[in-house]
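Hi R.,

Here's the chain you asked about this morning:
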Amino acid sequence: MRIMTRPPGLPCPVCGRPAAGGGPAPCPTCGLPAVGEAALVVARIGATIDELTRDRDRLLVTLRAATPGAVPGAVPGGVASPPVPPQPVRPHEPFPSPWSPAAPEPAYAPPPVSWPAPQPPPAPVPGSMYPDPDDGPWGAWGGDGREPAPVRRLSPQQVLLALGALLLVAGAVAFVAVAWNRLGVSGQAAVLLAVTAALCGASAWTARRGLRATEEALAGAGAALLAVDLAAAHALGLAGLDEVPLRLWTALSCAAVGVVALLLGRLTRSTVAWPLVALLAAQPVPLLLLPEGQAGGPAGVAVLLGLAAADLAALVVVRVGLRGVARVLTALAAGGAALLGVVVAWEQPPAPSWTATGLLLAAATAALLARRRPGLAAELPDAVPLAGVTAGVTALAATGSLEALGRSGPVVATAVGLGLLSAAVLAARLPVVLAATLTAGTVLTLGGAAVLLDAERYTALAPLVLAAVVPALLAAVRLPRLRAPAVGAAFAAPAAAVLLAAAGGAVSRPAAGLLLALVAAAGFAVASLRAARPEETVAAGAGALAGLLAGGLTASDGAWGQVAVQLAVVGAATGAYALVVRSTTVAAGAVAALVAACWSAAGGAGVEVVEAYTLPAAGGLFVLAVPALRTGGRSWAAEGTAVAVALVPSALLAVAEPSAVRTVGVVVAAGAATVIGTLAHRQAPFVVGAAVLAWVALGRLGPYAPLLPRWITLGTVGLLLLVLGATYERRRQQAREAVAWVTQMR
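And here is the predicted structure, written out as tokens:
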């Protein structure tokens, strides 16, 4: 029996160099085990793929030839297939078995190990059960056409190694706690050091053997035992170490663990645990080295900022797997520095407060400058959010530092904030500068204003709020996208300033109400000038709100005459705006303001005549009816309400409380309404006027009816009945005509 001769010259599947022999011999170049067997398997797979490709091409040619109306040479999807040369059909010849006798055959030439060129995917067929790979995450391979990455799961080996390392560390702790006095101090130290060194050495040995999981588990256990050794040495007084202050010993222990881990990481570069331990052990060292009581002051802020800078620099040198940890540590250190700096700036005296603010300002500047370096630019946030966040934190600290200066501090903070907001509007085309100035200005302005409000210093805050008009107007002029909210802020600032001045006693309430009425008039004026633009609604709403505040503020002081003046101003401005925009709703609001002004004036003057209240209301209703009168609308929907409000209350009082002047006035007005309704063919004034005349006549003559002799009453009634009976048919026809005539009125 002859052994199969292995085809010579097969390439290594990894490095491509010729494989040397068979069996378990590795590749001399890349070290691939059993390179001969691997190369043979890859060659067989390549030959099978080539044979399948030829079979596919022959099948496609046969299918095209059998398809009626097919274009010769056409390939589905628009991809032309190369012509397939005729191949002799031979029975399948399997690869020779290693145990079969070698037959005389020509030398084996290995086919080239290559994959067919990828073809574009065919168009999806409607109704096909196979999804289109470009359809998104529910396609065959997802949106990118690649097989989804397998989910990483915790293997049993990793669980066993983790439990073993944990139990080993727990045993070491128990050994220190229980068996320390049974052996000598030197023996205890020798045992712990020997176990720690053995674990570290075993981690290095397994790293060279390629046992990654075991290597990491042993390294973690060794680092934990090293920390236990140092803690036990101090706690149990080894060589008098218990006399070292605990804070200092903790710092030295962390530094020692970090140095050892760093050295071991340099020796075994494949171990991730050592650089991770070194990075974590270095974090508390700077704070622990500070003297007692200094960690909560500017020194602590400086140390945390330095630690954040060191962690940021470590991002460049650590391996890729640890960059996430370094990012988290950098963020924690920077956030802690910012929080501590703000607390120091607000809680401590001016000197440490300003020191903390200066440190935060320097750190913000350094962060923006560090982002220009190519190595750090990818690890830091974008310049715009970075500038906004750092400027906001610095401005918050600066507000606290200014507050520590005394009464002028919050005023200065608010004024500086308003200046920065104005500068932000001017620097709108510079994103980084805009983010910094806008955030800092907002924080300073709101912080200073909050301090003044908390101290109830309304008089000092009022002019600062009024000064907010400047950045609002700048934004309204220079930033079209922010014009509407800027207009609202421009009207809200003076209104708030007036209210603050009134609350602080700088101006009286009636004067403040008049100022608010002028603000309302200005709002309606701007709305009229900017009609049919987005800022129109904002300006009109601000004007309406200022008018309501004006009336309410002055009415609370009982100055009804001033209320009438302010409502008249607001009503006139609203009426002008209604004429510009031709809005019935706005016109109704204007009329309501003017009527309320008349009522306030009459009530403030102590007028009790009912006509002082009904006639202004009737006049306002008549003004609202003018459009309907011009278009010839129905009288009851137009002037009917106005006529009724003007006549009915006075008619009732003319009968209930007879007065010559009121009676004459009611009769004249009702007669005029009746005549006008008759001539203009308007039903509402005719009916209301006639009804009022009848009511007044009956009401005035009713008291005199019982005073007449009975024969006169009986004779008069009988005569009327005779006349009606004699002319019944004619009067009936006349009544029908009268009703029809009234009904036909508009």
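One quick note: The CA atoms of residues 677 and 686 lie 4 Å apart.

Cheers,
M.
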